[in-house]
Amino acid sequence: MAQRRAHKRNLSKGILDMKFMKKSKEKAEREQEDLESRDLFETDITKALKSSEGAQFIIEHSMVPIERLLNGRMSFKGMNPDVERLMEQETRELREQEKARERLQSNKPEISDVDMAKRLGKTVSKKFSNSNKNKDSDDSEEDEDDSEEESSPPKRGKFLKPADD
Amino acid sequence: MIPTPDPAYRVGDSVLPGDDVSAAVRTGDVSKIVLGPGLRRLGSQVVVSRAGVLKMPKNNVFVVDAYQKRYIPVKDEHVVGVVTNASSDVFRVDIGASVTASLSYLDFEHATKKNRPNIQVGDVVYAKLSTAGRDMEPELVCVDTHGKAGKLGKLEDGFLLTCSLNLIRKLLSVNCPLLQALGQKWPYECAFGMNGKVWIKARSVKETIAIGNAIYESELMDNAQIKKMCTNLGLVIDSM
C-alpha cells in the first residue's frame, strides 16, 4: 500500500490550493478517494469483478447524471442576484460543453479552414508589410504578438536631459 | 429453494427485488452497460434490488423506476435538510433518509474553529453529500473543493415542503417548463433537494402558496398542461 503510493508523484498541497488548479485538485482528490476505497474493499473484490466481464458494467447510483438534471437551487427575476449569477455561469458552461460534444461528434476541427485563412492572412500580410517597411527583423517579431492592437504605437519623445544650473 | 425458470424480462416490465434481468440488459450493444439505481451485479448476473418498472432512459442505461418518497443518500447529490441538533462539532441534519446526516461546522465558507457558522436548530440548509455508503451515516458539506460556498449553505426565511422524489426529478429535467414559467410571473427563489424537500421563498405569502400548490399540482401533468396552469394561476393571483 505504502509502496504503491510512494512511487506515484503527487502535486503538493500548496500548488493544488492555487486558484487555477481547480480541475487538477478535483482530479487529485478523486484519485486519492479511489485509492482509499480500493484499499478498504480490496478483500471484497472478486475475480469476476476484475475480469473483462466486469469492465462492461458501469454502476451509477444517482439519477442526476443519467437524466442530466439541473441544479435545484434557482432564483428568478432578481430575487437573489448571487444565485442568478451562478445560474448564468452554469448554463454558459453547459452550453460550451454541449458545443464541444457536438464538435467531437461531427468530427469538425475546432477552427475551420476559412477562419484560419482569414486570421492568418491578416497577421501574415501585416508581418510582411511591416518587414518591408523597416527591414529591422526584431520589430516584425514583436508585432506578431500584438497583432490585434494598433500596428504603430505613438512614439515617445527622446529623453531630454535638463540643463544643469 | 426450488430453482424457477427465469421469465424473460424486457424493458418496460414490472420487476421485483431478486429478479434476474441479465437477458434484458444484454439485448443491445453489450460493450458498455450502465446500471442505474435499482440494479445490482451479482457475479455475472444483473439483479433487481427494488420493486418498480425496468426502464431504459438512454441507450444502454438501465434503471428501476418506482414512485418513491424515502430518500436513499447518494454521494454528490444536492439535498435540502433541516438541522435537528447543533451539538459541539457537528450538526445533525434531517434529510429524509433512514438516519440523519452529519454536517461539520467547519464545512462552511469562511468557517474556522474560532469562527463558527451561525446555524440554529430548525434552520434549513442546502448541502451536498460528501459520503453516502450503505453502512455509514451520510455526511454533508456546504462548500466545494476550494472552500467556496457557491449555491450551498443556509437558506434564510422561506417555506419548506416535501414531495415525492419523482416530482423533483421531473421538475429538474431540462425540458420541464414549470420553474421557468413561474419565474416569468413572480420573482422567487427555490432549492430542490434530491431528497424530496423543496424550499421556496417568494415576496409574499400569497405567492408562496401559489408556487407551492403549482409544484404539487404539476406531479400528474404534462408540459402543455403545466404551461396552461401557470398562465391561469398568474391571472387568478394578479386579480386577487
From TrEMBL, chain A:
InterPro entries, per database record: MPP6 (IPR019324)
Any single Pfam family the record assigns to this protein: MPP6
Compositionally skewed regions (Basic residues) per UniProt: 1-11
Top-level taxonomic group: Eukaryota
Compositionally biased region (Basic and acidic residues): 26-36, 92-105
Protein's GO biological process: maturation of 5.8S rRNA
Extent of Acidic residues compositional bias: 138-151
Sequence segments annotated as region (Disordered): 1-36, 92-165
Classification via PANTHER family: M-PHASE PHOSPHOPROTEIN 6
Name of the protein described by the UniProt record: M-phase phosphoprotein 6
Gene name tied to this protein: LOC113213292
Automatic annotation (TrEMBL), chain B:
Pfam families according to UniProt: KH_6, RRP40_S1
Superkingdom in the source lineage: Eukaryota
GO BP terms, alphabetized: CUT catabolic process; exonucleolytic trimming to generate mature 3'-end of 5.8S rRNA from tricistronic rRNA transcript (SSU-rRNA, 5.8S rRNA, LSU-rRNA); nuclear polyadenylation-dependent rRNA catabolic process; poly(A)-dependent snoRNA 3'-end processing; regulation of gene expression; TRAMP-dependent tRNA surveillance pathway; U4 snRNA 3'-end processing
Keyword Transit peptide attached: no
Primary location: cytoplasm
MF terms in GO: RNA binding
Gene Ontology cellular component list: cytoplasmic exosome (RNase complex); nuclear exosome (RNase complex); nucleolus
Family, per entry: Belongs to the RRP40 family.
Record-linked PANTHER family: EXOSOME COMPLEX COMPONENT RRP40 (PTHR21321:SF1), PNAS-3 RELATED (PTHR21321)
Name of the protein this chain belongs to: Exosome complex component RRP40
Gene: LOC113203001
